[in-house]
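Worked Example 4.2. Read the sequence first, then its structure tokens.
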Amino acid sequence: TDSVHLFGPAEYIAMQIKQSIREETGLTASAGVSSCKFVAKIASDFDKPDGLTVVPPDRITAFLDPLTIERMWGVGRETQKALSTLGIRTVADVRRVPVEVLKKKLGKHGVQLALLSRGIDPSPVNPQREMKSLGREETYDNDLVTIGEMKTELFALASRVTRRARRYGLVGRTLTLKVKHHDFSLVTRSVTLSEPIDDAHEVYAYCCRLLDTTAARQKPARLLGIY
């Protein structure tokens, strides 16, 4: 609210942030604007690499309902399996299931998912969080069709991630590969190593193995990410 008083409407603030990033770094950035942090975050992923998606309060339900549950915070493979037993595959499905049922199935996390499915996210914005992970992802204008194209891009991502890790004096033991296909289905694959690494070639090799466990050979990729 204070930001709106100082700088103007939220959409204008987002445009100014995007412009500042471009002027100072030469990079594009995507932004999402909504009355809920969860919705704004999803909106920021919608039109990469240089998008601005605005979801007003009266459009939140229509925006969220068609999305698959993988787009929700904290919904990994095991949670997907648990929700699938209830016939839940989209955010709309989550919203239709009684909160008591979700709580019985998933505990407090089920209650949180029920709130998020309704566009309710009371968690505060914390810009001072300690860095617990780092990564890089890219959304491509043209889908990556062949496994060779994907692995070429993975090496570029691995180089950027490890270069940044060394800059901060960090090493990592858990690697996560993120793949979004042309149909917007999203998969992640992770591996935890016995020893931490910060070498691009090693990160690349592990991520190639993870890529081979996905449907990348059958489905074009629109986004790749390494964390």
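Now turn to a second chain, presented in exactly the same format:
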Amino acid sequence: LSAGQIIALNKFRGQPINSGVLTLYFALPWRPNAAEEDALAWGMADVSTFQIEVDIEGTVITPVLKAQAYKLPVSANMGPIIKQRRFVVPVGATGLINFTTLPRDDSYLALHAVSANISDIEVIVDGEQMIKSTVANLHAGQEVYGLVPQSGYTHLAFDRRNRNSDLLTMTRQRNGQNVRVSDFQLDFTMTSATSFTLITEQVGTRD
């Protein structure tokens, strides 16, 4: 993600922003209790290397970068974590845009469209309508739970109640067995024919 996108997502979760500081969360301090906060934390006991790559803006003349980490003296393997990725949603006209190419592997915690040109969203999983709402109503419902929708973004937070268990899973029960969904559709109603970046937050084991 870009630094601006990381900051926007941190603000959405109600986290403080300090000038000159870019915070990367490997646990979830906004969760209501310690168990929820640590459930998706990054354990390092089974990790041999850990790297962070930072691209510095080309116009910066004398960049200075310092890193500081807060760690707990606890030995734990890395379990499920939140994985953030970016996709481009192509938009060639106003009106309904159907997007069907997101991965159907890990469960989804949230989706963040870097666009203010979306008026309505519908989510369909294996033919079942999961969400159909205006963006205004979605954001109003998020604010009830303390989330802070950001200007220029359209947020779809499946965990708006601030619970790790509130996920959009990519499996369904069929004949007593969990099977992978075969169809995952996002329908965006666009007010402008402008392509946009879609940030996904999925929960699963590391790749």
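Notes for the reader: The chain has a mean pLDDT of 95. The CA atoms of residues 13 and 30 lie 7 Å apart.
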